[in-house]
Design brief:
The complex is a heterodimer. Chain A is an alpha+beta fold. In chain A, about 40% of the residues lie in helices and about 20% in strands. Chain A has a two-stranded antiparallel ribbon with strand order 1-2. Chain A has a two-stranded antiparallel sheet with strand order 3-4. In chain A, helix 1 packs antiparallel against helix 2 (about 110-140). The two termini of chain A are about 25 Å apart. By secondary structure, chain B is mostly helical. Among the domains of chain B are: about 10-35, no CATH class; about 70-135. The interface of A and B includes residues 5, 9, 20, 64 and 128 of A.
Amino acid sequence: MSMNLIPGIESTGSALSAEKIRLEIIAQNIANSNTTQDASGNVYKRKEVSFEEFIKTPERRVPGFVDENLYQGVRVTDVFDDQTPGRMIFNPGHPHANEDGMVEMPNVDVSREMIDLISASRAYEANLTVVKTSRRLAQQALAIGR
Amino acid sequence: MNEISSLPSLSDLLTQNSNLQANKQLDRFAKTSELGQGFGAKEAQQTNGVDFVPIDKTSPTDRVTAPGFSQMFENFVKGVDQKKKISARETQDLILGKSDNIHEAVVKSQEAGVAFNLMIEVRNKLVESYKELMRMQV
């Protein structure tokens, strides 16, 4: 990264983006905790994200600034379905009931999603704290000259 | 910023000006050599008592070692400008709904802010050292 004045900003930025996607997926799970039919006609399956470290080359180079530093960030590689079967509920009048009158509920456990939500938001906050701290460091370093 | 960099520097103007004057003198030599037949241009120069000094077309800033401070500072200013432009683009994308990463826009604007502050500090130092020179006892 050319002229990297705020330490760690690029890695932290990618982590913020990844945690944001994780939050979105958790929100999606909670929103669909009672969805018995998704877009393809099956019961909604809980979604999970997987993170992966990646090495990013600087996307923009300013002429005159030579910088070979690559930074390691994180990105979401996959959003996958949790395949555990959901609860079966007897409800013959339900439009999504099978021939035995059973309706499969989504395998979303709202309390578990809440815990994941706390974890994701804490991870986001941690990265925000890194941004704040490193910005403050840069500004304090600049204040030496005053 | 582009407008500033496109303006010719003072030293460039001065060299251009002295070039013009030198050309005029050469014209005059040519005329005298035509009028006074048999006199060469060299003699005309000698009779006028003016020695022709070749103009050094390089500006004083080019004569010092390669990239130079001005070039370096210009690149730095361009870098700061680049950061500011990136920040503006991110913010615009966010406002227009092209992007939904709030942190991206804020982080970029903070980066641009820190870079700008650094530029201000460097400028302050430069102005300070210039003033210090001006205060020097002669």
